[in-house]
Amino acid sequence: MKYPIVRNTKYDYVGQSYASSFPNLHKYPATMLPQIGIDILKEFNISNGKLLDPYCGSGSSFASALECGLTDLYGFDINPLAVLISKVKFTKISINQLLDTKKSFRDNIFEFLKNEENLKTLKTTNITNIEFWFSQQVIENLNLLKHFIYEIKDENIRNFFLVPFSETVRECSYTRNNEFKLYRMKSEDILNFNPDVVGVYFKKLEDTLFNYINFYFPKLEKDVSVDIQYSKFQPTKNYFDVVLTSPPYGDSRTTVAYGQFSTLSNEWTGIDYARKIDGMLMGGTKAKTNISKGIIADYISQINKEDNKRALEVSSFYNDLDSSIKKVADSTKKGGKSIYVVGNRTVKNIQLPTDQFIAEKFEENGFKHLKTYERLLSSKAMPSKNSPTNKTGKTVNTMLYEYIVICEKIK
Ligand SMILES: C[S@@+](CC[C@H](N)C(=O)[O-])C[C@H]1O[C@@H](n2cnc3c(N)ncnc32)[C@H](O)[C@@H]1O
């Protein structure tokens, strides 16, 4: 092993969950524990400067950063749902305005519902296969909520109200809620499924308000600036002081399907390319040739002996990670640190050393590897088993540990 790995139990956080320090405002797959970011930033004495997360998801790196005194934060993600969640968590909104809007929103809805026929007059949203995923009653009530949310003029407040809406879409659909992929409930469960959509929404709105007011708002002082964009990372030369991120650990199709998880929410909020998102994420398009250089090449060649298609998919993921690291490295200031929290997934029973790949690529781009810590993965909200053969039911343990890879820009 070229870059040594140190088992560090300090980063295990056994028994702790995301919620123990920053309750999430919305479910999201494979979130990083903010505790990891907090402790690693402290360990390397990083308490100011510009922080970048090129795969920011629901924004846990920003939670870590704020806790450590960093206030200039930049994030990117291609998944609109991820950007919505992060923006809402880290945008300062007047609590009084939120509460006033809640009151008028509620009054408008109850006034409208005095005549149930009104429901039939609302514009419906274009959702693929809508009747497969929602009952007629649920569709009408989601249309109602959406109609009044989009009457909210202030964009930040409207986004805030969209977060519980997105959770309500998921909870009131026929999706199996404990899965990240889109799977429909069994027919017998559908027969008994009749959610109170408006009731679910208001309960979620209360929870979102409670968590925002108590855990996020107090951290958003006047000088906090959080810039989050719906896009792939856009480089800026020598700009960032620290990069803290947890990238995907493989393509979305065979690992965590961020796009599928978010499809219904994204469609309900007007994203017409919602079904294409998994193909747009890292490793989403197949490479034409396999990677033949560097640490990962031998592993890919072993996979290739068994399955050429899988080897090309794996190559595609590492090609994307490679080109992203080049841009991230170029955008980091000299003396700046990169902190990547990654899992080493298994394909065809071969465990891929993503931690080594990341250290190697940063070193090729002007960085020096400082440390890699190994931590137990027990508390990460994602499956530790997946179906590497893509046959339902056939699973293997893929990842029990994850790795915190720290490098420093020296050139
Ligand atoms: C492991 S998750 C990040 C989770 C995040 N740390 C959190 O706590 O929520 C990886 C994220 O990378 C995003 N992603 C995948 N490919 C991307 C790309 N090429 N550019 C930007 N984001 C991408 C996915 O949408 C997903 O949100």
Name the descriptors.
411 residues, alpha/beta, 14 helices, Rossmann fold, binds S-adenosylmethionine, two-stranded antiparallel ribbon, single chain, 12 strands, globular
Topology, please?
Blueprint: E1 6-7, H1 34-43, E2 50-53, H2 60-67, E3 72-77, H3 80-89, H4 95-112, H5 130-133, H6 136-149, H7 155-172, H8 187-191, H9 197-216, E4 225-230, E5 240-245, H10 258-268, H11 277-280, H12 297-306, H13 308-330, E6 332-343, E7 346-347, E8 350-351, H14 354-364, E9 367-376, E10 385-386, E11 396-397, E12 401-409
Parallel strand pairs: 1-9, 2-3, 2-5, 3-4, 5-6
Antiparallel strand pairs: 6-12, 7-8, 9-12, 10-11
Helix pairs in contact: 1-2, 3-7, 6-7, 7-9, 7-10, 12-13, 13-14
The structure holds S-adenosylmethionine (SAM).
Describe the structure.
The chain is globular, with a radius of gyration of 22 Å. The protein has 14 helices and 12 strands. It folds into 2 domains: 6-92 and 220-409, Vaccinia Virus protein VP39 (Rossmann fold, 3-Layer(aba) Sandwich); 95-218, no CATH class. Strands 1-9-12-6-5-2-3-4 form an 8-stranded mixed β-sheet, sandwiched between helices. A two-stranded antiparallel ribbon has the order 7-8. Strands 10-11 form a two-stranded antiparallel sheet. β2 (50-53), α2 and β3 form a beta-alpha-beta unit. The longest helix has 23 residues, at 308-330. With 411 residues, it is α/β, with parallel strands linked by helices. Residues 379-397 have low confidence and may be disordered. It has helices at 34-43, 60-67, 80-89, 95-112, 130-133, 136-149, 155-172, 187-191, 197-216, 258-268, 277-280, 297-306, 308-330, 354-364, and strands at residues 6-7, 50-53, 72-77, 225-230, 240-245, 332-343, 346-347, 350-351, 367-376, 385-386, 396-397, 401-409. The structure holds S-adenosylmethionine. Residues 28, 30-32, 55, 57-58, 60-61, 76-79, 82, 232, 246-248, 258, 281-282 line the site of S-adenosylmethionine. S-adenosylmethionine is lined by residues 28, 30-32, 55, 57-58, 60-61, 76-79, 82, 232, 246-248, 258, 281-282.
